[in-house]
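Worked example

This section walks through a single chain of length 158. The input is the sequence exactly as stored; nothing has been trimmed or padded.
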Amino acid sequence: MSSRVLICDLCIFLLFGYNIAMPEDGTKSLSAADDVPKGNCTCAGFSTTAPEADASPLLSQAPGLVVKCDDEGGNTCKTLCNALATATKAKGPEVLCNRLKDANELKLSAFYKVCEKPWIYADITADMPLCCEEGTVKACPSMSKINSTDIIDAKTVM
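Given that input, the structure is written out below as tokens.
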């Protein structure tokens, strides 16, 4: 899976939840024979690739996936968050702007966490910044400096 996934795909998932992308029975559970600590997988979006330890995400969603609280569980959670970001593409910038109302040069980065561990960067950050004004996607000033003849399509911003 490419890490060049559009980050607003993650926005759609985080805003609308896991049930849009996966059926109710899409959760993974471990057998009773696995006698290891278990926890929840949570996906989130931060405005940086290195948030402070106590920072809250702009968006977050716990899809209900139960995984082991170890590296294997972390890898499963990361894979799920990245896959859901890929599977839920439609209208990401519009939905995010509607939620945030105003944003200036936002480059959302995807994170995941398992159990009570800290957030871990999922290797996905928006390629282009997102700007919103009163809930509507607008062209970012930085993008107009790159090429003033290009027209920005809101569906390709993230």
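What to look for: The chain has five helices and eight strands.
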